[in-house]
Design goal:
CATH superfamily of the largest domain: Type I PLP-dependent aspartate aminotransferase-like (Major domain)
Structural class: alpha/beta
Distance between the termini: 29 Å
CATH topology of the largest domain: Aspartate Aminotransferase, domain 2
Strand order of the largest sheet: 2-10-9-8-5-3-4
Number of strands: 14
Number of helices: 14
CATH class of the largest domain: Alpha Beta
Helix content: 40-55%
CATH architecture of the largest domain: 3-Layer(aba) Sandwich
Bound molecules: pyridoxal-5'-phosphate
Shape: globular
Length: 383
Amino acid sequence: MPHNKIILMTPGPTLVDYDILLAMAQPTINHGSPEFEELHKTVISKLKKVFETEGEVILIPGSGTSAMDLALRSVVRGKSKVLVLKAGYFADYLAKGARLLGADVVVEEAPLGMGFSPEALEDALKKHGDVDVIALQHVDTSTSVANPISDLAKVAREHGSRIIVDCVASAGGMRSNLDGWGIDVCFTGSQKALGTPPGLGIVAFSREFSRELEAQNKSLYFDLDMLRKEMESTKNYYVTPAVNLVYGLDRALDLILAEGLEKRFERHRFMASLVRSALMEMGVELVAKEGYRADTVTAAYLPRGVEWSSLYKEMRKRGIEIAGGLGELKGKIFRIGHMGQVGYNELISTIAALERSFNTLGYEVPLGKALTKMQNILASRSE
Ligand SMILES: Cc1ncc(COP(=O)(O)O)c(C=O)c1O
């Protein structure tokens, strides 16, 4: 299968719409030019709409981890006490990042497949005492667990803690209402539910936190003061913006806002329910437990006798790229991304390929059964 024919169903990078690719295929302009300054301002204002904040947004060249590093540097001061709520592999990044900045980090881990309820957060705060910062993933991509961020942010407010949320696998596909929910900081990368190629890090601050924002723990690259000046105007050069990726992100944000945030989030909820129904119809066990399942990615255990490397090869032969497990789940699970520009046709192709791949690998499922399940759900909604 030629690589440009493979449908990307990984939980990042995700499918990139042709409109976005074409938007990037424009002459690279100078970042200090009036044209780029205007474009950059527009992109920042569109990002504020997606994050539902009137606060500041920082856009930097880099992956999601770069945004995480900058976000942590905005809240971790001196020997801050940081509580990391772990629902998968990526919580270790938050803990490591905060520790490297000198914070006193405590980690509370949810049972595999579970996230944190407000009661569980209250218990953790009782156990560890009040903390300066609570840090967690909205969606941990490794387990496909989603946390109830609006409820958790409320608890953080009541305890006077800052809350920093990793929205790498949710922003653009699930709601992140910074000002409304009282999230202080969240961050993402361009390559997931925003549907843009990898290479941009985005950090968004709430209106309230933006007023108190001060640069902490600067490094040469992550100098919040200098980056904030650059966001005011790209004429205040500090680091060179990723000009062509910004063209792409601008187009992606147009697509997102044209679809409408509510409609887009509902589409993601629906796509997730379709994938889960199909997988359960095949007798496959999901990793995330009910009530904690993400709308953007689904992780499931490999059926008995099916090896990850063989499933990966069989799926690629059939034109679909899915992802395997990370960390302790490596070799035990597979993951399907269903976010950003992914649509029903790609979901149908993925489930069809999965049915045939499972049969080839000795896990027998009746061909078409899971597909029919999906078809019926789609038909019932006139899709
Ligand atoms: C939830 C989450 N956080 C952080 C990251 C790290 O992002 P990146 O690989 O873009 O640096 C990822 C990457 O998949 C992720 O899924």
